[in-house]
Amino acid sequence: DTAVSQTPKYLVTQMGNDKSIKCEQNLGHDTMYWYKQDSKKFLKIMFSYNNKELIINETVPNRFSPKSPDKAHLNLHINSLELGDSAVYFCASSHRGWMPQHFGDGTRLSIL
Amino acid sequence: KNEVEQSPQNLTAQEGEFITINCSYSVGISALHWLQQHPGGGIVSLFMLSSGKKKHGRLIATINIQEKHSSLHITASHPRDSAVYICAVRPKRGLIFGKGTKLSVKP
């Protein structure tokens, strides 16, 4: 009965590959988010989806594309992975109004 | 200069001490958030503030919009409070995060 679940927890892959991270929430929230936490532990918002519509895209390269099949899911697809994509990616959800946000446990992406 | 600055970067305290973590920002905001990241990596939302003060258990958060400053206080600190505390501000769009304050509470 995890509120926000991300899979996989760890992802190790090679440069140039395409990969996806899945996120699901069972809280009935209407807004979902993707964050990136770099090696210096600095968090940045990447995307926010409200009722399946993208409402923020914070200058993220277009190799990253969020896909929301329904309001309980927000998956992150990454094409042509680069070394700089290595980070921990967090999914979160909330009701409209940003807080409180419930976070997933993170996906640690390592690019070889 | 970062738009959101936290101080101190690192803080070590003895169990029972009163702790203050500060957050200053340079942009106009509609709200400010405090988050806690556990040593295992999990992130928990603590507070959202747009004015005044909020309290939850031993945690108190205050904000002064005119001075563009917020503080997070922990009373009677405990080793389980050891974590990174992150301030985030909400300008017109998005969220801007501070770099976090790493707190260690020793028994």
* Helix coverage percent of chain A: under 10%
Apparent shape of chain B? globular
Quick one: how many beta strands of chain B? Answer: 11
Return Rg of chain B in Å.
13 Å
Helix content of chain B: under 10%
Low-confidence stretches of chain B: none
Uncertain residue ranges of chain A: none
How would you describe the overall organization of this protein?
With 112 residues, chain A is an all-beta fold. Chain A is built from no helices and eleven strands. In chain A, the strands form two sheets. In chain A, strands 2, 4, 5, 6, 9, 10 and 11 form a seven-stranded mixed beta sheet that branches. In chain A, strands 1-3-8-7 form a four-stranded antiparallel beta sheet, with no helix packed on it. In chain A, strand 7 (64-70) and strand 8 (73-78) form a beta hairpin. The model of chain B has no long low-confidence stretch (mean pLDDT 94). Classes of the chains: A mainly beta (112), B mainly beta (107). The A-B interface holds A 40-45, 48, 56, 58, 88, 90, 92, 98-103, 105-106 and B 31, 33, 37, 41-45, 47-48, 84, 86, 88, 90, 93-95, 97, 99-100.
